[in-house]
Amino acid sequence: MTFINYASREINCKIVYYGPGLCGKTTNLQYIFDSTAPQAKGKLISLATETDRTLFFDFMPLELGSVRGFKTRFHLYTVPGQVFYDASRKLILKGVDGVVFVADSQEERMDANIESLYNLEENLQAQGYELMNLPYVLQLNKRDLPNVLPVEDLATELQRKGEPVLEAVASTGVGVFDTLKAVAKQVLTELRKS
Amino acid sequence: MHEQQYQQIKAVLAKLCLDASARVVFLVDKDGQQIAAHGDVGDIDTTSLASLAAGNVAATGGMAQLIGEKEFPTLSHEGERESIHICVIGRVLLVVVFDERSSLGLIKLRVKQISNEVAAIIEELTRESGKKRAEDNAFFAEITDDDIDSLFS
Ligand SMILES: Nc1nc2c(ncn2[C@@H]2O[C@H](COP(=O)(O)OP(=O)(O)O)[C@@H](O)[C@H]2O)c(=O)[nH]1
Ligand SMILES: [Mg+2]
């Protein structure tokens, strides 16, 4: 839930990066963290296992600048992708303002993408949200790999509601900020509409 | 939340901080957004602490439900020198950081004594949220596409 603090003149929004295990969610945040000026960001907190798999969430606060004198601060979260962490994923969706679904473009990960997308819809509903009404972006990641499916095929299978579809190579930063912009814009536009 | 309520909350936190001999006291939304803080914040990353406190409460709340409890109303983590006590008050969390100048017993007592006051302020905030929403809407209706674009330039 967007939290507007009139006293400190801040707008706080929560964005969650969702998707199957190893699709590149943490890599998105890491890239944003590495390429943001120190004064605009807080720490990147990663609650990860010893083998660097996300255990609970990654978290990073990011300041984008001001709108009409209000500082806009985006709280970026990732969820753990593995199926057995479902309880944690549900918790992280609480109070979400916008979702980025990071799909793994590799052919052999198609089933995992679909399963994760269903899981997102279910878990959103469990928290009282509808994907259809939520600021939402589809990122097709790992476009640099040789075994990727064509964008059209992925979009046909994974696009839910005419949401923006962005190609990305999170490991080198391609499409990472465009994805963030696309979802942040929707979140702010949503505030205006409500 | 408006200046007056903010000052009211700050005053309550200041009182708690003093009475409990705490290092820092935070009020945090259950979604992980910091509402207010008081005390010797020093180099504590308060944004991250707020997010992790909310994650902590969410995780233990999830465990509570699995064993048939509604939630665990308080959580305490005692370190060698620094400790944290978290109390769930409706939709907010009162987070107290303390060291050897205080004790868990004193912290718990003072938090308990003040929790009604915090609850009352939060209730008022919630009651007013309808009115506030109208105000928010007026504010956001004025945001233009250019305002939004300028954030990303
Ligand atoms: N080739 C390639 N590898 C990527 C890309 N994005 C992420 N990776 C790699 O995929 C692995 C899993 O990424 P991670 O961000 O941990 O996945 P998460 O489980 O979704 O958080 C890591 O080894 C990344 O370096 C990409 O666009 N291209
Ligand atoms: Mg991860």
Helix content of chain B: 40-55%
| Cα shape of chain A | globular
Between the first and last Cα atoms of chain A, what is the distance in angstroms? 12 Å
Helical content of chain A stands at 25-40%
The CATH topology of chain B comes to Beta-Lactamase
> What is the assembly state of the chains in this entry?
heterodimer
Q: Which pair has the most extensive contact?
A: A-B, 39 and 34 residues
List low-confidence stretches of chain B. none
Strand-residue fraction of chain A? 25-35%
Please characterize this protein's 3D structure.
The complex is a heterodimer of chains A (194) and B (153). Chain A is 31% helix and 28% strand. Chain A has 194 residues and is an alpha/beta fold. In chain A, strands 1, 2, 3, 4, 5, 6, 7 and 8 form an eight-stranded mixed β-sheet that branches. In chain A, helix 2 packs across helix 3 (110-126). Chain A is globular. The mean pLDDT of chain A is 91. Chain B has 153 residues and is of the alpha+beta class. Chain B has one domain (3-119): Beta-Lactamase (2-Layer Sandwich). Helices cover 53% and strands 20% of the residues of chain B. Chain B has a five-stranded antiparallel β-sheet, sandwiched between helices. In chain B, strand 3 (74-78) and strand 4 (83-89) form a beta hairpin. In chain B, helix 1 runs antiparallel to helix 3. Chain B is globular, with a radius of gyration of 17 Å. The two termini of chain B are 29 Å apart. The interface between A and B is large, with 39 and 34 residues. The structure holds guanosine-5'-diphosphate and magnesium ion (MG). Magnesium ion is lined by residues 25-26, 54, 78 of chain A.
